[in-house]
Amino acid sequence: MGDKGVFSSVNDLYLWDKALFSGKIIKKQTLALACAPHNSDKNPCNNYGYGLHIGCTGNNQPLLYHGGLWNGNHSLFVHRPSDGTLIIILSNIYNKSFMWKSYNILHILDEL
């Protein structure tokens, strides 16, 4: 089943990220379309590709992300294309601030 009712693990999402962004699942050209903003009425740093939200870090580096909420489970998958950094948050607590926490995590990682 697709939307709703899909359960995964951090490890499976990590493997999905590596396969998707390495070209093992779809061609690089197709992936580029999925990661490009397609709503000309919206800011490129607040847009949607084909299945991925597009945002930007504080210094305008693109971020690709998608979240989910279903039956008490909350998830967030954030991929930074510039260096392949991946943040996966899986929780049983609904928290709208997960995306903002990922920005804080990226900032901490960049300071290391």
Write the layout of secondary structure elements.
Layout: H1 10-21, H2 28-34, E1 46-48, E2 53-56, E3 62-70, E4 73-80, E5 85-91, H3 98-111
Antiparallel strand pairs: 1-2, 2-3, 3-4, 4-5
Structure, described:
- The chain has 112 residues and is an alpha+beta fold.
- It has one domain (10-76, 84-111).
- It has helices at 10-21, 28-34, 98-111, and strands at residues 46-48, 53-56, 62-70, 73-80, 85-91.
- It has a five-stranded antiparallel β-sheet, with helices on both faces.
- The longest helix has 14 residues, at 98-111.
- The radius of gyration is 14 Å and the shape is globular.
Oligomeric form:
single chain
Task: Provide the succession of SSEs.
Answer: HHEEEEEH
Structural class: alpha+beta
- The structural domain count equals 1
Mean pLDDT: 84
Tell me about the largest β-sheet: 5 strands, antiparallel
State the separation between the terminal residues, measured CA to CA: 40 Å
Radius of gyration, taken over Cα atoms and rounded to an integer in Å:
14 Å
What fraction of residues sit in β-strands? 25-35%
Give, in spatial order, the strands making up the sheet with the most strands. Answer: 1-2-3-4-5
Low-confidence segments:
none
Helix content: 25-40%
* Overall 3D form: globular
SS elements, strand count: 5
Number of helices: 3
Short description:
This protein has 112 residues and is an alpha+beta fold. It has helices spanning 10-21, 28-34, 98-111; strands at 46-48, 53-56, 62-70, 73-80, 85-91.
Features:
single chain, 112 residues, alpha+beta, five-stranded antiparallel beta sheet, 5 strands
